[in-house]
Amino acid sequence: MTARAAVILAAGQGTRMKSALPKVLHKVGGRGLLERVIDTVEATGCEKIVVVVGAGPSAVRDLVVRRLGEGAVAVQDPPLGTGHAVMAAREALAGFDGDVLVTNGDCPLLTPPDLEPLFELRGAGADLALLGFEPVDALLYGRMMMSAAGDVSRIVEPKDASPAELAVRTCYAGMLCADKARLFGWLDRTTNDNAKGEYYLTQIVALAADDRAHVKAAIVPESAVMGCDTPMQLAQAERIFQDRRRAQALADGVAMLAPETVHFSYDTEIEPGATVEQFVVFAPGVRVETRAVIRAFSHLEGAVVKEGALIGPYARLRPGADIGEDAHIGNFVEVKKVAVGKGAKANHLSYLGDGTVGAGANIGAGTIFCNYDGFDKHETHVGEGAFIGSNTALVAPVSVGPGAYTGSGSVITKDVAADALAVERGQQVEREGWAAKFRARKLAARAAKQRKS
Q: Is 214 assigned a catalytic role?
């Protein structure tokens, strides 16, 4: 198979997003636009990936270096068009021979099957392969003009198109593939003789046609190549992503009572036989096993829910939550970095942070793992079968042994032995008749005030 490389264009300022966050770092399905495109390109088998970024330090550059290494960065300075952006990647591709895929960095719905036809066209003899689509509204897109032989002869921008050319429905999506040597040969012949003084990547289509090269196009759905230049487009992409994931989950055997209210992330894993109720949010890093039930209005992130566990309603699982088989995490319970054992229960109004809860343990309402001292986090460990009374504060680091009890309202600061009872309360004092005297005094004072007025 011919070697593959990719150039991802991510140097645009994204001013229409109206955000301090660079456009390609905005997220769809809990993952940045550029990261999603890199994921897709890697899955096509590209051995070399170059990302074109703007000049100067930036969060985009930092992401590329962290993900792909310093050698994957190409800088476009100053920005002089899409063709100029690809030319900026020449040095980073030194030593590579093979096909180069060019794609945009803001297309979060692009998948490997959408790009594979470009490589297939190259393998079938096309010198230049283009990705096209047929938009609902073609107003802003360049039309792909076809020759009598069925090749793409040129791309016409809408402002330059005649009425007959505007009637063409097939538009250029911004992705192409060609042999590296021919691609840069055509780019070297492009000019900036236009109103913006920029070098356009689309110019190479006409140059290839002049060379009698075969220029072929593959057509994909509009949603596959959708870019995100504005908050509205970002929201539209999110909606499409969510619809896809909901449909896939239902097809996989996940029961959802109101799928249109469930929000997934790019890496959400839910096994067949699980149930998800209304208005549940799966942030990144969640795995749910079969027979588990995620009840309404729960939020999960970085968590594992084992087989048969019950979560919610109104529960929050934060990163590191590991909920064991048949365990219960109930309403208004928050769990962070705690492994909850099989059959354990924390049914309401508790915070469990940093530690473990043994199998079969019961966490009473109002229990708090006091894990933070203002500087460091400390762990709390509750043994198997232990019973934590309501409104108990467990001040970490502390352990409650297997089978032990804590009395309701206790503040536990020392380890509790197995099968022991730990109670820590102030002495209860009762003053006979105090309440009646208090009410009489208050009522008399109120009456006196009314007489004076």
A: no
